[in-house]
């Protein structure tokens, strides 16, 4: 409890000033000549709460402004007013004591946030110190400078890794969507733009050329097979015509042989010719079937090149995207670690202080004087430190 007990005109003046929501104890005393001592006024309300407008309501005097005045000054003012209003012979002695003050709340980037007792002259810097300072969570080194350098080096590595993954993801996305060019995102390190993009462009062109080469070979094979089938079908028509003629000749020769007009040698020759043509017909049909099977395999291979390649690239893209998200998360962690360590060395450079006073939010510095009830939020400035 902060006490500023002041006997008007007698007690020493303390530095506190009264603020809204303060609880005051006001005692009025006068000299009792019979008792030979100071006696408190009976029936006097002693506890008052300063309202949001900074005022209190005092018996006989009505509404008085209390905020932004010191307890001694308020006590003297009440004593003078009571003397005039009540027509007293002597000025009473009035003591004003601040018995309770709203705490200051500290939150954000602090070790031990929450409410803390207000002290006169408290600044945001002092509140930060009383809240335990900046938490260095996840930092193993006990040397802040060394830890900051390590975090910044790690941060630089993560930036390069993120750029590599981002350009790779852009290339894989273009391959999955079968685009003619890669739409690269902006990179964290502009100096690496040319090297990383050129590398992915070369891979993109090499993969596309290899795919086109394989598809071209398959298309060539398909054309050859289709031409072969067409030739075999034409040959098959010719064989069937010849076979029909040979069968007619065989029947005629068999009839002549039965009447003794043709010898056995002639009949055997006709049978051999039919058999030969039947064999050619079978071979041509088998060749057509084989060519059709080869076409089916070539088309399946073409489908595998197109769809299988897309499926593989999609799987690679999903893996790369996951790695990219993990890298971004780790980079943000390292950025915060580097920023917190910088805040330890140079808090004004790295910290943003927001003070909520009443209904207003104000961006202030660490040396801003606080008042009771202030809510102080400590954050890192939204600017990357060392990348």
TrEMBL record:
Claim: Isomerase is one of the keywords in the record: no
InterPro entries assigned: HH_AprE-like, Poly_export, Poly_export_N
Origin superkingdom: Bacteria
Cleaved signal peptide residues: none
Protein keywords: Coiled coil, Signal
GO molecular function: polysaccharide transmembrane transporter activity
Domain AprE-like long alpha-helical hairpin: 152-332
Coiled coil start-end: 148-175, 208-249
Residues of the Polysaccharide export protein N-terminal domain: 17-99
Gene3D superfamilies per UniProt: wza like domain
Name recorded for this polypeptide: Chromosome partition protein Smc
Biological source species: Palleronia abyssalis
């Amino acid at each position: 409890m902060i006490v500023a007990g002041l006997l008007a005109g007698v007690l020493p003046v303390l530095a506190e000033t009264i603020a809204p929501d303060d609880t005051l104890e006001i005692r009025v005393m006068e000299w009792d000549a019979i008792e030979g001592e100071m006696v408190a006024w009976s029936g006097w309300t002693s506890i008052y709460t300063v309202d949001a407008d900074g005022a209190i309501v005092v018996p006989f005097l009505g509404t008085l402004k209390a905020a932004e005045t010191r307890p001694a000054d308020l006590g003297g003012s009440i004593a003078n007013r009571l003397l005039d209003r009540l027509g007293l012979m002597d000025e009473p002695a009035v003591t004003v004591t601040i018995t309770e003050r709203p705490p200051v709340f500290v939150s954000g980037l602090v070790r031990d946030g929450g409410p803390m007792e207000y002290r006169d002259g408290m600044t945001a810097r002092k509140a930060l110190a009383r809240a335990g300072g900046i938490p260095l969570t996840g930092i193993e080194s006990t040397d802040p400078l060394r830890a900051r350098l390590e975090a910044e080096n790690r941060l630089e590595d993560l930036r390069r890794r993120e750029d590599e993954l981002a350009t790779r993801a852009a290339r894989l996305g273009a391959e999955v969507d079968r685009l003619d060019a890669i739409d690269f995102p902006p990179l964290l390190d502009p100096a690496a733009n040319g090297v990383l993009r050129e590398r992915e462009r070369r891979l993109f062109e090499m993969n596309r050329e290899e795919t086109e080469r394989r598809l071209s070979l398959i298309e060539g094979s398909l054309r050859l097979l289709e031409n072969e089938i067409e030739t075999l079908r034409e040959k098959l028509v010719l064989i069937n015509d010849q076979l029909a003629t040979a069968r007619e000749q065989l029947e005629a020769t068999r009839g002549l042989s039965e009447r003794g007009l043709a010898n056995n040698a002639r009949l055997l020759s006709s049978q051999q010719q039919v058999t030969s043509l039947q064999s050619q017909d079978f071979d041509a049909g088998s060749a057509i079937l084989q060519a059709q099977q080869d076409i089916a395999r070539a088309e399946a291979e073409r489908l595998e090149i197109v769809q299988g390649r897309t499926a593989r690239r999609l799987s690679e893209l999903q893996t790369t995207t996951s790695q990219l998200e993990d890298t971004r998360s780790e980079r943000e962690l390292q950025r915060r670690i580097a920023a917190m360590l910088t805040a330890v060395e140079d808090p004004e450079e790295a910290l943003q202080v927001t003070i909520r006073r009443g209904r207003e939010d104000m961006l202030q510095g660490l040396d801003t004087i606080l008042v009771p009830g202030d809510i102080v939020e400590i954050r890192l400035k939204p600017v990357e430190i060392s990348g």
